[in-house]
Amino acid sequence: MDIIFKALSDKTRRKILEILKKKDMTVSEIAAYFHITGASLSHHLDLLKQARLVVSERDGQFMRYSLNTSVFEEVMKLFITFFGKG
């Protein structure tokens, strides 16, 4: 769970998640939203993958990224359990 919170603590990674909420995208499509190097974007995507917040799938010569909604469900359950006890 720590890796998930680490991934969510960065505003660039949160923006990537927000973008992927709209539709699955390739790295070049995601990069159009940022003014960062390809290496930085790859680092952010790798951390999101490690946290299982995004998944990637080969689409020809490109990698297509999408949200992993099951992990978001796990996080929400944790918050509900933690904050729901009053």
Structural class: alpha+beta
CATH topology: Arc Repressor Mutant, subunit A
In order across it, which strands form the biggest sheet?
1-3-2
Our measurement of the CA-to-CA distance between the termini, rounded to an integer number of angstroms, reads 23 Å
Report helical residue fraction: 55-70%
**What is the H-and-E element order?**
HHEHHEEH
Our estimate of the beta-strand percent is 15-25%
The average pLDDT score comes to 91
Would you report the number of β strands? Answer: 3
What is the global morphology? elongated
Domain count: the total is 1
Biggest β-sheet, characterized?
3 strands, antiparallel
Alpha-carbon Rg, integer: 14 Å
CATH architecture: Orthogonal Bundle
Which stretches are low in confidence, meaning pLDDT under 50 for 5 or more residues running? none
- DSSP helical segment count: 5
Briefly, what CATH class?
A: Mainly Alpha
CATH superfamily placement: Winged helix-like DNA-binding domain superfamily/Winged helix DNA-binding domain
